[in-house]
């Protein structure tokens, strides 16, 4: 799922290497109809749902300094040197419930897509999950994100925290965003960044490899 891994796998002896997009799940990340209680619990202006990484602490702290109304969900944020500034905006650890995760995203006006520099990410599962759930995906500008969505149409992109903070006012009120929600989800479906579509492509590639003898012992 990371392009550099293709040549690395080949160098280690792999005979049939396939790069694929990270994907949303058609069931786990299907749009929900939140109850009034769920809206009250999960509604937010700008959310980030994810684990703490060293580069993420300074980024989110700068967003707060720039006045972004941020909600943070995820594990290990107490390890961040910026925790004293972030603590009041942390709304709990990562959820093991598909519904709770979907609500964290879907009930946000804007859902941030932060990458892991150590993992060499240019997109993540959030890149498909957020648009499939209908929330506005606000993420780092990369070639892979720009291949998936039109900036300012199905998503908004940024180079740094300063530009990210400027994108937030562009988000519509969450409950009034239904037409935009459908457009984002439609683009995700068009991109085929869904588990079943990725699985079909992988199985087809395996079948072709078997036919060509590439996977023989």
Number of domains: 1
The CATH superfamily bears the name Glycogen Phosphorylase B
Shape, principal axes of CA atoms: globular
Distance between the ends? 25 Å
* CATH architectural type: 3-Layer(aba) Sandwich
The major pleated sheet works out as: 5 strands, parallel
> In which order are the strands of the major sheet placed?
2-1-3-4-5
Radius of gyration equals 18 Å
SS summary, helix count? 10
Residue stretches low in confidence (pLDDT < 50, at least 5 long) are: none
In what range is the share of β-strand residues? Answer: 5-15%
Order of helices and strands: HHEHEHHEHEHEHHH
Q: What is the fold-level CATH name, i.e. the topology?
A: Rossmann fold
Mean pLDDT: 91
Given this structure, which CATH class is correct? Alpha Beta
Q: Structural class, from secondary structure content?
A: alpha/beta
Range of helix content: 40-55%
Q: In total, how many beta strands?
A: 5
What does this structure look like?
The protein has a single domain, classed as Rossmann fold (3-Layer(aba) Sandwich), CATH 3.40.50. With 217 residues, the protein is of the alpha/beta class. The chain is built from 10 helices and 5 strands; from the N terminus they run H-H-E-H-E-H-H-E-H-E-H-E-H-H-H. It has a 5-stranded parallel sheet with strand order 2-1-3-4-5, sandwiched between helices. It has helices spanning 4-11, 36-42, 56-65, 83-86, 98-106, 126-133, 143-148, 161-167, 178-191, 195-211; strands at residues 44-49, 70-73, 108-113, 136-140, 155-158.
């Amino acid at each position: 799922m990371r392009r550099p891994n293709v040549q690395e796998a080949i160098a280690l002896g792999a005979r049939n290497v396939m790069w694929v997009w990270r994907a949303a799940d058609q069931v786990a990340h299907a749009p929900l109809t939140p109850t009034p209680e769920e809206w009250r619990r999960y509604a937010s202006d700008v959310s980030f749902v994810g684990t703490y990484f060293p580069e993420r602490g300074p980024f989110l702290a700068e967003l707060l300094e720039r006045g972004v109304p941020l909600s943070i969900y995820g594990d290990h944020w107490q390890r961040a040197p910026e925790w004293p500034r972030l603590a009041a905006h942390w709304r709990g650890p990562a959820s093991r419930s598909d519904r709770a995760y979907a609500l964290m995203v879907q009930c946000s006006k804007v859902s941030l897509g932060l990458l892991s520099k150590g993992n060499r990410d240019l997109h993540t599962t959030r890149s498909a999950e957020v648009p499939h759930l209908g929330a506005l995906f606000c993420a780092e500008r990369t070639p892979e994100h720009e291949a998936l969505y039109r900036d300012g149409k199905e998503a908004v992109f940024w180079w740094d925290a300063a530009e990210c903070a400027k994108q937030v006012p562009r988000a519509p009120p969450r409950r009034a965003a239904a037409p935009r929600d459908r457009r984002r989800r439609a683009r995700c479906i068009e991109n085929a960044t869904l588990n079943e579509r990725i699985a079909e492509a992988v199985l087809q590639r395996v079948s072709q490899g078997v036919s060509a003898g590439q996977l023989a012992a």
